[in-house]
Amino acid sequence: MRVAKRKIYGLVLGAFVGSMLLSCAGTKRPQLPSPEEFVWPLPPAEPKIQFVRSIHSELDLGPRKRTLAQKIFETFFGRPRLRALRKPLNVHVDAAGHVYVADSHWRKVLIFDFPQKELTILGKSGRGMLLNPLGVTTDENGDIYVTDAGGQRVVVYNAEHKFKTAFGGKKVFVRPSGIAINSALNLIYVVDTWAHQVKVFDRTTFKFLFTIGRHEKEGKKIAEGSLDQTWNRSDAPGEFDFPTNIAIDKEGNVYIVDTMNFRVQILDPRGHFLRSFGKIGNVPGSFSRPKGIALDSEGHIYVSDAAFNNIQIFDKEGKLLLFFGNFGSGLADLRLPAGMYIDRHDRIYVADQLNHRIQVYQYLGSKASATVGENH
Amino acid sequence: MKKGLLTLASLALVLCIVLPNNLLAQINGDKVENTPHNLRKATTSGMGLQDWGEICVYCHTPHNNNTDIDAPLWNRETPAGPYTMYSSRTIDMTIANAPQGVSLACLSCHDNTIALDQIINVPTAKFGSSASTVTINYCATSCHVGQSPSGGVNFEGTNIGTDLSNDHPISITYDPALDPNFHPATDGKVGGVLPLYGPNKDQVECASCHNPHDNSNRPFLRMDNANSAMCLTCHDI
What we know:
The complex is a heterodimer.
Chain A: H1 2-25, E1 39-40, E2 49-55, H2 68-77, E3 88-93, E4 99-103, E5 108-113, E6 118-122, E7 133-138, E8 144-148, E9 153-157, E10 163-168, E11 176-182, E12 187-192, E13 197-202, E14 208-212, E15 216-217, E16 220-221, E17 243-248, E18 254-258, E19 263-267, E20 273-277, E21 290-295, E22 301-305, E23 310-314, E24 320-324, E25 337-342, E26 347-352, E27 357-363
Chain B: H1 21-27, H2 41-45, H3 101-107, H4 139-143, E1 172-173, E2 185-186, E3 189-190, E4 194-195, E5 203-204, H5 206-209, H6 231-234
Antiparallel strand pairs in B: 1-5, 2-3, 3-4
């Protein structure tokens, strides 16, 4: 009897283990499409833009470094909550490869340090506390400049993420959003969206220098920071209607997305009008909700449009060259894209707002040599 | 005109924006040209600037529109994709996997840069402190957050929690069968006033509470929310 029981148990156990092994044999990991699947323009044309990756959360930095004590603690008490992007509005990348994201749900700036595999949340408390950051940029010293619409100020941190100083305030800004720095001229350009102006500051003293855009009402100058500035909307050259973001080219010219005029304006470093392009419409080359702007190493102008959910690429004269991006939540898609930045390696970072991620694309460079009429 | 209404949306969350008095008269209107959604410069600025001559073009386009969306003449694609939006431990109804058509139109401006977004400021902001700080004085947040002036039930004690960065859910299916604390909807509307969207006329969107063309009940509410009357049109509590 005993022998028979053992045999039965043995058979059952063997059958159980065997079926477990068999069920494992057939499993395959799902195949994600490779980045080469997402190129623009489509073949047989030469690809100019290729999708690289998305940045969602600290998981994209790589596996977390944990001490032994942390590992033991987390085995019993569970891992800390994953920190992921919630609603990124603007993105910036510095020379060292850190990715700065102004997130309007976190209400803070998240810094992805890929070399060190660390995620820092900037502006949590103290003098540098952020209430509503809309734009972020850095300079060559590693200082971080964040526009805080909630505090109506620009907060400056040093490279160690410690509060350095802040400028602006209620009497200066109505709603600062985009920001860009001209290192050569020591100028900080802050786009004051609800004042329909770009305000320029000196980078060494943080003193206010001058305003670009309309600043008069009925012939009288409007007091800085006064809500009368909200009447400044204008479609004249050099004047704005809800400007949002700003980019600076190698010559120091500023490129400003004049959102509710549905155009991009290009001005010289002092704010004198050079040219503009764009109009409202829903055909390629026109704009509907232009938000982000960035320039690649060859001087092409990239504008993200939250209504088209794509990025349109123009040459310096404003001629449309290419547009890429589709609406959706797929790997390379966009959903209400906002701010953009292009780093030295021509990698294009787009704040993909409602997909809570940063989409990264690569400009593959102009393979053909410059043709007649192109001036890069 | 579908259903006789041009129903583009503003925000799902009720906000009260503090503005100086000389602006109030111009923005409290029942016609879109008297509201902040009149983006035409001449009227709102009152400075006689050269204007576009059109109010509607900022949001509507007559050609090449996407006919899948319930908002008329909208140039936007039909949304899809996995997406977690609002979440709550007490939710009973199903939430769509993405902000749907009408609400996407709102969010393209109300993303916190051009216009306030759907996120209310965290409760550290004082009520009515400055023009840039949103005053929260409707329903949930005046009564149900921490030390409230009106002494309402503190949500923090129940399962909602202290993180109020979630807004009132949009793209959520309104189905009183799943949760008895809601009034029934008839003919795609609740209380005869608040419309539901989608192919089955059962989705709550921004435009269910807001009428972007009519600012008589600030901010762009479909009805007066005194005593939370609008909230109570749907919520049966």
